[in-house]
Each structure stands twice: as structure tokens, then as C-alpha cells.
Amino acid sequence: MEEDDKKLLDDKPLVEDDTEELEDPELVLDCVPREAEQKAGLGSSCPGIEQSKDKQKQRLTAQEKRQACLLRRDLSHLDQLHEEKDLFIQKTRGELRACRRRMELLVKQQESVAAEIAAERAANNMAAMGRLEAASRRLCSELKNERDLQAQMMAVLQQSQSALWQIEVQEGQLEDARKSAQEEAAAARRGLQERAAKQLHREMGASGKAERNRLLRARRCVHLQKELGLRQQKLVEEAQKNHRKALRFLKASLGRIREQEQKEELETREHMRRRMDAVLALKNSISANREMLRKFQAWGQAKTELAEQKAQAEKKAILAQGGDAFKHLCHQRRRQELEAQNRAFEEEQKRRKQEIVSRLLKEEAVEDQRRPRPEPPRPAGQRSLRDQTWSYVATFCDGQSTEAPLCCPLPDVPGQRPGPAQEQIKLQETRSRFYQSSPLLTAISSESVQGDGSLGGEDTLAWPEIPGLWKEDYKPFQVSKEDVDRKPVGGTKMDKDILARTMQRLRSGVIHKQVASGREFRGCPFNSKPKFIHFKDFDVGKVYKKKITLINATYTINYCKLVGVDESLQDFIHVDFDPPGPLSAGMSCEVLVTFKPMINKDLEGNVSFLAQTGGFSVPLKCSTKKCSLSLDKELIDFGSYTVGETAIRTITLTNTGGLGTKFRFLLASETCEMDTSQSVLKLSSTFTYEDKSLYDKFTTSFSEHQMEGNESSPTDVPSQKESGKLDVKEQEEGHPIESEGVTLTTIMTIPPNEEQMEFSLGETTEGDIGPFSSIKVPVIFTPIVPGTVQNSFKVVFKNQQCPTLYFKVVGVAIDVPVWVPKPNVDLKICMYDRLYQDSILVHTRSKAALRLKFEVCKELRGHVELLPETGYIQALSSYSVQLKFLPRHSLPEDAGKYFDKETRVLEAPMTIRVADQIKPVGFTVHAVVTTSDLELSPAGLDFGYCTIYEAIRTQISLCNHSLLPQEFGFVGLPKFVDIQPNDGFGTILPLETLQLDVIFQPTKAKEYNFELICKSEINRCFKLACRAVGVYPPLELSHNQIKFAATSLYDTSVATLYVINSHLSMNSLTHSVPRIGSEDAFPVGPTSFEFLLPPDSPITISPLVGTVWPGKRCLVRVAFRPVLPSELIHQEAFQALSRKAEVKLSQKETVTQRKDQRRPSFSMLRLQNQDRLLRASASQPPELQKEDLASSSQEYQSAQASLTRSFQGKFDKFVVPCVVASGDTKDRKGTEPLSFSPHNTLYLELWCPAVAPSIVVTSDKGKTVINFGDIAAGHRGIKKVSIQNISPEDLDLEYSVLNPDGPFVLLNPTIRLPSGETQVLDLSFSPRESVVAQEILDIITKKGTLSLALMGTGVASTITCSIEGDVLNMGYVIARESVSLGFKLQNNSPLPIKFSMQLDSLSSRSRDQHCLPQFLASPDQRTEVVGTQNYSGQSVFSVVPVEGVMEPGKAQDFTVTFSPDHESLYFSDRLQVVLFEKKVSHHILLKGAAREHMMFVEGGDPLDVPVESLTVIPAFDLEHREEAEELKPILVTLDYAQLDPDTQAPPATRELQVGCIRTTQLSAKKTVEFSMDNIAALQHKGFTIEPSRGSVERGQTKAISISWTPPIDFDPDHPLLASALLQLRGDVKETYKVLFVAQVVTGP
């Protein structure tokens, strides 16, 4: 409240002063004209009296204000005292009531004690009576004290009430004053509200004006937009017109292109029709060849059956004779192989002979080609493709390579060319030679001869594909001239290029970028559903249709157009697509794709579309029907079956493809007869297709068949598995097993052995499997011989594209009636003294019950037990026996040979004896027995001294001597111990040693002795003894660990903590006191601390040393500032210097080497001297060089910046000890250290990660100190600093706030800096005064702070001018003549100063356009410094030089020229000295006057304005000059100051100056004479004029002194008026009328 009242008192006088200023009478008096004051005369003293009265009123009001202020202060003080007294009285009354209650309680206690004393006295209990009497005395004393306290409180209460009454009386007396003060405060508030209302009204008016201006600007903008819209509309219309014209020409061009395409399409269709006819003819030929192939297959099957029958008959005959059929077959196979090798050798000899002959013929043909002969004319006809193919085949069979010509050249007669008949004869000879020499056709002929004789000679393969092709009268197809001259399909290459360029140009006009909401669309414009078109399992000749949906995936409207399909799909795919027009985003359209297959072949391609934003395509795939065959399993395990039993399993063959085929299940060693037709098919197809590649493949496969036929028959079959692998390999290579090299159909089947007879297949072993179907085939297992049986089967298919599938069958045949399925019982790894159990199953196949007896070897009967020892097993059932294994530590000695002590492996044989069976059934128990010991090392731990604020960590080793992993855990740990990791629990691997951390943190100061117990999973205990001493230090740290954030180099991270002294009392019963173990407690008092920092650490702690008083705490600031080591920086700097020196030395050497060529002797001497100097400089120790390199040098800073950029990061961990001592650091004497105890030491752990700065400075070699140098005050210097983000992520930048009143400003703060980019910061330095400025600009990121040191010196640009008063008066000049004056400017600043001189008459006057004319303003209000100017428009004044630079400490001379062109007394201008184009240092006023004649008079009071009329007054001729001449008035006002009527005042004095102007014009008179008349009359009135006449030389002036003393009869109320004539005679005569006005002034 007091503060509010003071504010009101401070504000109130301001309001009253404002009102008084508005009503100030002095302002009214100032408005009274000056003439009224003169008329008033002596009565002017009345306003002075009124003014004194007003001053008294003002003094009274100020005194009233002070009284009101004091009154309000007294009122507030009374209110405060009233509240305090009232509160004190209430509190006192409450204490008084409490005192009375205590007194009543004490009285009651006295009564009870008196009753007890009486009772105890009656009981004669003296001890109780003594105790009760003491209590009674204590109660009496307390009651007395309470009564005294009550009396005091009563007195205080009465005094307080009386004081309160006095205060209330004073408040009643000041109630009226309070009301008046409240009314005054209300009036002041109302005044403030009125002023606020007025201010609001003015602001509303200003806002209305601003709103009107805004509406005006809006209307202007709308008008401009309309104009721009009209202009844009015109441009659009013109563009549309041009577009229509271009479209018309484009349509014409496209029409011509379409016509050309239609013609080409018709020609293409015709060509396709001819090709289709040829294909149909070829198809008929293929069907004929297939018939021949069927015949060959029938022949092959017949031959195979005959061969099998013959082989079976031979086998039966040999077996009947008792011979070895297998051995006979092997010999027969070897004999056939030998015969085949002989035949192959003979054919190889024939082939080599043919190669030699063909090589000779080829050499002759080459010799014929080398002979010069004329160019043969172009043939009229063209050989057919069939003839070229047969020629190529003949050439290849003759031994020529594939690069040879298609037909072999024959020797021709020079100058002649064989005709068609000769060519036909040559072709027939080639064919016959091919038939004779080709071993391929020889093999075919031999096969045809070996066939059935009933087929006759008419069954031959040598039939033409097209009937009549091999006839003598056959004429080859002649290509017509039109077909020869016809262009290729699609036009020539040039036409295609022109069309492609045209379409590209059209598409570039169609495709546009789509931008919506500032984002450009990128990607596929339409999404296809489905994503690709797949015609699966198609049939040739059928029609398939699929519909796809195209969805607009762009941001806005788009268009879609069908471009077409790939060239490879154009004959089979037809796309129906009706362009839907504009499609909005998300809308779709449908496309119908029709597929009509003509060939049975997989096809792939794309359907291309064109959208407004670019092209896209939909993938298309057509796949034929295929077989996809698989088996559900590859291994069939029957398990164990007794001999004679039968087991059946099924295997499933599944076809998931759309094409069916024939299949057959065979043994892996058997050969499939389906392979025969494959070779014959390849042979026949060679002559069906006119393809060179097919022939090459066939010849290659045929030669491989010959070689494999010679090598495929093995001498013996070692095993079924090897034969199976051989068959699999041959089947994968696609070559059948052949018995002869030439005939491909003779197959020798090897009968299966006895093992293979145990596995057989069901009835369904071959047949047809349809598409998308499956077939189940049973596999039967009939064990014959005990043991393990296995075999492999394969599934072959007629379709050659389907691979052969294999599966394996495994079974076990047993014949013992009682057996153990697990003859080896493995108990794995077992520990000593642990029980392990297992069940042993015994099976029987006997049909009667049997008695079993289980026996354990006598060595292990104390460790192994079988229960029950005897039992009965029922028929065809099983029996379970319980095995118990409890190894003792005596097992190695008891087991003997059954136990290996090195490997700890136990092999215990067990026996099962069966009644009525001699051979017992045995099984073996295997186990690895190991120990369960865990070892702890060391055996004991001593933690030493540890404070309660820290923890000590010690490592222990836990070793597992067992071969089994064991779970362990430290149980029953005390609260002050922790074991890590995993809190002391875990699993230890076999023979592993774990390192565990034992952490001890005491809770109180005492000596600790305890044990750590480690238990294993089998409840074994291992103990570890520990001891320690707990210390309670007198000081504590608020934080024992500080983790600094990742700090950049040369950045600072700060953390704070407190050192607390909580030791207040030595009472150990109420709380713990600081002590060391069980020693004495630490004394209470000031305690000192000191942090011991490690040397050369980047840590700063403030304060390092301090004292903490009990119950207080001390704030400690810890700062981490990572820096680079100075040694590393020096090393990098000297490396850079050495590199520069080497470069300079190499440059000097090159220069000297060039000079050596001219002057070798002198150059050698110089080089030797240079080498000596370099060696001497290099021999200096590096310590001396490092001293020369300062940290402020450029080399040092460059090396520092380079290392900062390449810094990889560093992590340091520091532990700073804080020693504690009793006492104050101020009490120690001199440098005497305090007695610090090593056991009371506190430790502060600091984690200090240092990283590379995220932002570095790249400009000025990475310097972070930006020195602007010397800048003139009022000017600005700009420095550009480049910063780069070297971190892998984008950073947001923040900047520290620079001093808003300081000279440094960041001009372009960047908010975000992308990774790897560089940003240039503009920093400006604008000093306002001469000052040395320095600030730090911090660039803050989330990864660190980059500090830039800004330095600069502001220098005041001070210059001095030689002109005193800054006014340069040029004097009087004859009109149309000039005069010059000079002045100097001195530069007193240390900076060069750029200056420019500006005249106000030549500057803009736009700021004075709305001002009143100068002649209408009063003299006091005239501020215009530019006076009369020349009529010619040229400047009256001029200055040289206009601009330039003044060097520091130098002076600059300037020349001002005054050149008037007419007469005037008011020539004036202002010259401004502008520094640095902005600061005006001096204003120099230029004045001058011009006369037409050589005389002038100056002085007196001004009677006209200093502004001339714009009208030029014409000059009169000499005749009328005297008529026009008039008197020029001069007013001289004299004021006689009569301050004291008793003393004589000095006379009033004025002067007139008469001068003669120096001129270059010739004149008769060189002086000016002046005279003044009526001197006597003037002297009578009190005027004195000296001199009254005289003469003036050229360039000189003379003063006429005028003085006045009031005469005796002077009336002070009326001024004195007088006049006189002043005549000047020079080149002309001039007369002036001097008017004298004199008056007496009595006041100042």
C-alpha cells in the first residue's frame, strides 16, 4: 500500500504541472504586440507584480503537496501500527489464556501430589515421600513462575491497549484528511483516464488514416492485377492462335505419316502371309518326319525286346549249365566295347583322310580366289535358304570351320560365271558328297539296314521336306525385282530416325511436369491392378482375354494414352483401350488385353502407355504349359521288422503344372527305355529345321554319344550304390547308357541283387499323370536277411524337360526274440554323489512269456543298480527296467578297467539273461563322471578404509572344475555388499573362470568382518572371508559422479555441486557422528577441503580450496573444456612449415639449375652456401624453434584448425580426490598446510567425452577470432565468416544475444545448417564512438557450441577547420566579378577519411516544398541559409576540391569562389563537409554581397527581407536615371540603458561602415568620398557623428560612429526621431537617408 501511495504522490504533481502550464499567464503576455508595450510605458511594472503573485501561489501549492504527502505517509504508518498492535494484543491474550490453563493444571497436580504424600506418609514410605516432596517443590516453583509471567503479560496487555486507543484517537483526528487524500487520488485517476481517452482518440484517428491508406493501396493493387490479367489474356489468345496454326500443320504431317505407316503395314502383312505359308509347309514336313520317327521308335523297341529276350535266354542257359551269368555278361560287354572302339578308330581314320582332302581342296580354292579376276555381275536370281543350308552342312562335314563360307567354291573358268544349271549340278554334287562322307547319315543308314526287312527299300529317311524339291526340273525360287527394291519393314534406317525424332519432339510437348501444393510429382503416374499380366498355361490357337485397371496415382488430373506393346508381342497381343479423357486423382480406367497364341513358346514384354507426366508400362508374361513334378518325401524309413513280416508305405507323386506326362518308377540302377526316342528325335529334327545352331548342337551331342557309348560300360558293378550314382549322373547329363557306339537302341539290363528284392513297388509303377493331379505308389518292405537294408529308386518321365526324381528306402531286419532297442544307454555327464535314473525297454517277438534276469558287473555293483533284478516279459510285448546310477568318489578305484581316469569316461556292460536261451542280451551304460567343485580366489578380501559416500570394487575369480555348466548364486549378502554382474547369480560353463565384481559400500563408520556364501545348484556352499573399515567423513559431496555431455573441442560444459558440512553435534546417541572406524569422533567446527586436480587435465574446479562451517554448504563449479595438446599443435605446425620450406627449396633448386646451364661455377658456390645455411638452420634444436612459434601466429592457428577438423573424439575418466582437514584455511600460518587425513578423502568421478566440433570455421584458416581492426565511428565494417557442418546430420542453429547497444551485429543468422554444407555469416562492426570493443558470439547447436571472438576498435573521425565560427564572409564584390578565399581542414584521426563538399543550393529542396515563403515568416523563424542566387542558374559559390581522401595527420586546402551575376546584399549558402558519404562534420555559412558600383554602406537595422523578387527590375537609361533615383533609407536604432536613475549611463552607440570595393574595371575615381549633412540638428538632439565626411581607398572600409545621449527635455514615454542625408561619391553618386530612432530603456 505504501508503494502504491508513493506512486500516486509521484504522479499527481505531474498532472498539476500540466494544468498550470496550460493556464500560464506568461504565455498570454507573450502574445501582446510590442507596440502595446511601448504605449504602456512605465506601466509595464504591473505585469511583474502579477507574476510575483502567481509565483507565490505556485509555492503555496507545492507546500500543500508536500504536506499532503506527509499526511498520507502518516496515515499509512498509523494503519500499520494499528494492525500490529491489534495482532500483538490478540497474541498476548492467547498466551495469557495458555498461562492460566497451565496454572490450573499445576494446581491440580499439587493437589494430587499432596494426596499421594499423605498416603505415602501413612504407609511410612520415606523414599516415595522424598520423591513426591521434590516433585511438590518443583510444582510450586513452576506455579510461581507462571504467576509472575501472568502479571507481566497483564501489564504488557494494558500498555498495548492504551497505545491502541491512542492510535485510534489519532486516526479519528485525521479522518477528514484521509477522505480528502482519497478524493485527490480519485481526481488524479480521472485525469489519467481522460488523458488515456484523448490518446486513444488520437490513435484511433491515426489507425483510421492508416486503414484508408491500406484501402487505397489495395485498390491500386487490384487495378494493377486487372491490367496484368488483360495483358496475360492477350498473351494467351496469341498463344492459342499460334497453337492452332501449329496444330493444323501437325495434323497434316501426322496424316502423311499415317498414310505411310498404312502402306508399310499392308506390305508387312503381305510379307507375313508369305512367311505363314512357308511355316505351314514346314509344319507338314515336320509331321512327315514325326511319322518316320515313330517308325524308328518301333524299330528300337523291337530291337530292345529281342536283345532282352536274347540276354534272358543266355542267362538261363548259363545258369542251367551252372556258370556265372554276371561274369559272362561282363565279358560280353567288354567284347562289345572293344569292337566299338575298333569301329570308332576306323571311322576316325576315315574322317582324318576326309579332313586332309577337304584341306587340300580349300587351299586350291584359296589360290583360285587370290588370282585377279573381274568383278562378277549381280546375279539375276537368289539362292534359297534351303540351298544355303545344305551347302553349309556339306562344307562343315568336309572339315571346314563354322567361319568358312556357306558353299564351297569350285574351280571356275576365268571370265565365266556358272549359270543356274551349273549351280544345281554343283549343289547335287555337294549333297551326294555330304551323304557319302557324313558319319551321321552312315549311322542312320546302318540303323535303317538293321531294321525289319519287311519294311522294304521304300522306308527311308532321305525324303525331301517339300515335295518336288529334289527333282531335276525343280527351279529355285526367284525373288521379283519389286521385292528386291522394296524397303525393309518399318522403312529405312533414316526413316526410322526421322520418325523417332518427330515422336520425341511431339512427346516432349505432351509430357509436362505436375506440381501440386509446391510438390512435384515423381514416379509412375498410373498404378496397374494387377501389377502384371500373366497368361498361364495357354494353348496354341485359343484366345485369352484379361482386363486390367489403371488408377491415376498423381496429384491432379492426368491423361492416359496407349503407346503399344513390344515388337516381340505385336503378332500375339491386342490391346483394346478407349482413352477416357481427363482422369482425376484416384480415378481409374480399364484396359482389355487379348492374347492369341500362334506358337508354343514363353513370351515376355511390356504394354506401354503415355501419360501427361511421362510414360509407364505394364509387364506382360505368357507361359506355356509345363510339368512341375515332385515327391512328398525323399527318404522312407520302415524301422525294425522281424524277418518274414511285411510293411507298406506310400509315396506321392504330385504334378502342380498344367501339362501331363508319362512316368515310370524304376530302381536307380535300371535304365529307362524312354531315353531311346530322345536320341532319335534329335537326329530327325536336325534335318527338319533350317537352323545352323541346331545342327551344331546335334553334331556335338552325336559325338558325345559316340564317346560315352565307348566309355559308359563298366567292367564290373562294385555295389548297388555306385551303380545308382552312375545312373543318376548319366541321367542328369541327358545321355542314355548304350552298349554299342553306333547303334543307339541296344540296352543291356542288369538284374537286381538279392538286397534289392526286399523292397518292391506296388502295381502302379508307370502310367500317365495329368495336370494338377497326384498319384500314390505303395512301397513294400519284406525283410529276408537280418540286418540293415537300403535301396534307391528313381522316377523318370517322358517329357525331357522334367528332371528325374530320386528317393531312398531304409529298413532293418531282426530275428532275435528278445532285444533291446537301445543297446547303448548314454547317461551323458554325471556328477559324483548325484542319483541318475533311466528306463531300459526290452522287447520280445516271442509268442510265449519269458523270464528275464538283469545282472550288473561286480565292480560296479556299489554304483549301478537295475531294478527289478528278475522279471517276466509277456508274449509280443515289452518290459521296462529301472537303471539307477549313483557315482561315489571311489568310482575310479572300484570300476577298474571300465573307467578311464584321464577322460573320466565310464563304460559299464550290463547283461540280460533269458530263460531257455544260451546267448544273453547285453547292453552298455556310458557316462562321463565329473566333480561339482567351484573354487573362489583369492581366499579372503580386505577392502581397507572406505567412506560411506563411496564404494570399493574388487574382482574375484570363480572357477568351475566340472565338465557340466553349473548355476551359482551368492546368497545371504549383507546390505552393504553387492556382486555384479546379474547380482551374483548366473551359470558358469565347464572349466570356465568368471571374473566377478564385489562392491562394498559401508553404511556407517565401524569395522566390518563378514563372509560371502556362494551356493551351486546342488546346494553346495563355498565361502569367502571379507574385512573392511567404514569411514564417516565430516564433509560430503552432493554428487559423487558427474557425467558431462559430449563436449566439442574448445567448448565448455559446466556442472555444479555442493560441499556440505552436516556435522553439528558430538552426541553419538541421537545420530551418527563422523569418525574413522571405531576411533574418536571428528570435532565440530569449520572444516576445510581441497580438490587435487590431475596435471594437464581439461578440468577446472572453482573454488579448489575452501572452508565449510557446520550446517552450511559451499557451491563448487566444475567446468570441462577439452582442448588439443599444445605439443601436438606445435608438431603439426612445424610439419606444415617444413613442407613449405621443402617446396621453396625445390623451387630455388629448379631456378638455380636453370642458371647452372649459363653460369655453372657461381651457381655451384651459391648452392653450397644455401645447403650450409639450411643445414645450420635444421641443426637447431626443436625447443628453440618452438619458442619462436607463438600461439597467436598464423601457423599455430592453421595447425589448430586442421587438427580440430580431423579430431576423432576422445573419452576420459577422471577421479578427483577431495581431501578434508579440520580448521579454517584462514587460520593457517603462512604456507603451512593443514593436516589432511587420507582416510577422510572424498572422491569425485568425472566422465568427460570430447568430440569433434559439429561446426567449424572454414574461412581465414579456421580462426575463431574475428578482428575488424580500426573502423571510423559512425561507419560500419563487415566481415564474412564461413562455417561448415561436419557432422553427419542437419543441425538447428541458435545464437547468443549480442549487446543490443553494442557495435557488433549478426546480419544474416541462419536457422538450419544441413550436413556437409557451408554457410557464410555476415558480421558488422559499427562503432558509435572511439572505443575498443570485444564480444563473444556463441553459435549453439544440440551437439555443442562454437564461440567466435569479435574484436574491433572504433576510431573517431575528427577533423578541425581553420574558419572560426564556421562563417566565411566573402565581402562585397562588383557584380559579374569573382573573388576567392581559402581555408584548411586538418585530419586528426589515425584513419584516412573520405570527404565530400556539398552546397545546400545544389542539394534537393523537397523537404521545404510545403513551407511558407521566407519573406512571409518573422525574422526569428527564418532558418533558410540559402539566399539570393544568380539569374543565370549557376551557383554563386563554388568550392574546390569537391571530394577526396585526407590521409591521417595531413591537412587539405580548399578554395571558395564567390561569383555573383547581379547586385544583391543577400547572397548566402551553406557548405557541408560530409565524411564517408554520411556524416556531416562541419557546416560553413558562406555570405557575400554584390554591387553594381564600387561603393557600399552597411550597418543599421534591416528594413527588408533577405529574399529578392523573381522579377528582374529593368535598368533605366542615363537620361532618366536622376528622375528614377530615390533615397535609400537606413534605420539606426539607439537604446539608452538607464538602469539606475542616480548614476549617469554611457551613451548609446552604433556604427555605419562605408567601403570601396576592389575591382578590375577601369574607373576615373579610385576612391569613394562620403559626407553627412544636418549635423548641427542632430547634435542638438543629443547625437554625435564622427567623422561626418571622408574618403575610402579601394578594398578598404571606414566606420562612422554614431552615439546618443538623451537631452534634458527628453520624454522617456516617446522615442526620439531624427534623420540625415549620407552622400557617397565614386564612379556614381548615391544618397542615403539615415533615420535615427532613440529611446530610453529602464529594464533589462
List descriptors:
single chain, 1644 residues, alpha+beta, 6-stranded mixed beta sheet, 34% helix
What do you see in this structure?
This protein is of the alpha+beta class and 1644 residues long. 34% of the residues lie in helices and 32% in strands. It has 22 helices and 77 strands. The strands form 18 sheets. Strands 21, 23, 25, 27, 28 and 29 form a six-stranded mixed β-sheet that branches. Strands 31, 33, 35, 37, 38 and 43 form a six-stranded mixed β-sheet that branches. Strand 37 and strand 38 form a beta hairpin. Helix 1 packs antiparallel against helix 4 and helix 8 packs across helix 9. The chain is flat, with a radius of gyration of 65 Å. The N terminus is likely disordered.
